[in-house]
Amino acid sequence: MGIRRGRHPGSSRGTEVPHRRRSAGRVVLWGCGAVVALLVLAFVAMMVGFVWVMGENHRKMFGG
Questions:
Q1: pLDDT tens for residues 1-18?
Q2: Taking the model in full, what pTM does it have?
Q3: Where does 1-64 have alpha helices with state H?
Q4: Residue 59 pLDDT > 90, yes or no?
Q5: Which are the contacts of 43, defined by CB distance < 8 A and separation ≥ 6?
Q6: What is the C-alpha separation between 29 and 23, in angstroms, rounded?
Q7: What is the distance, to the nearest Å, from the Cα of residue 28 to the centroid of all Cα atoms in its chain?
Q8: Domain boundaries, the chain
Q9: Residue 64 in 3-state DSSP?
């Protein structure tokens, strides 16, 4: 029984590999998209923080 069980996973692996290769491309695209999204969010956060700090300094300078 052990030998038969060993053969079945081998045959199922042959069908799983192509799917894994196809999904790998999607994973790379999702990874790149996630990195770009994080960079954009970080950039926006820095801009918002910079504008907010400048606004606070502007208020302090002019007594607003």
A1: 555 555 555 555 555 555
A2: 0.48
A3: 2-61
A4: no
A5: none
A6: 10
A7: 9
A8: 24-63
A9: coil
Residue 17's CB is within 10 A of a number of other CB atoms, namely 9
**Radius of gyration in angstroms for the set of CA atoms belonging to the chain, rounded to a whole number:** 27
Residue linked to tokens 């069908």 = 15
Query: What are the structure tokens assigned to 41, written together?
Result: 């969010």
> CB-based contacts of 64: which residues, under 8 Å, 6+ apart?
58
Q: Write the CB contacts of 22 (distance below 8 Å, at least 6 apart in sequence).
A: none
Residues in the chain, overall count: 64
pLDDT given for residue 58 in this prediction: 80
Chain position carrying tokens 């042959």 = 14
CB of 57 within 8 A of CB of 50?
no
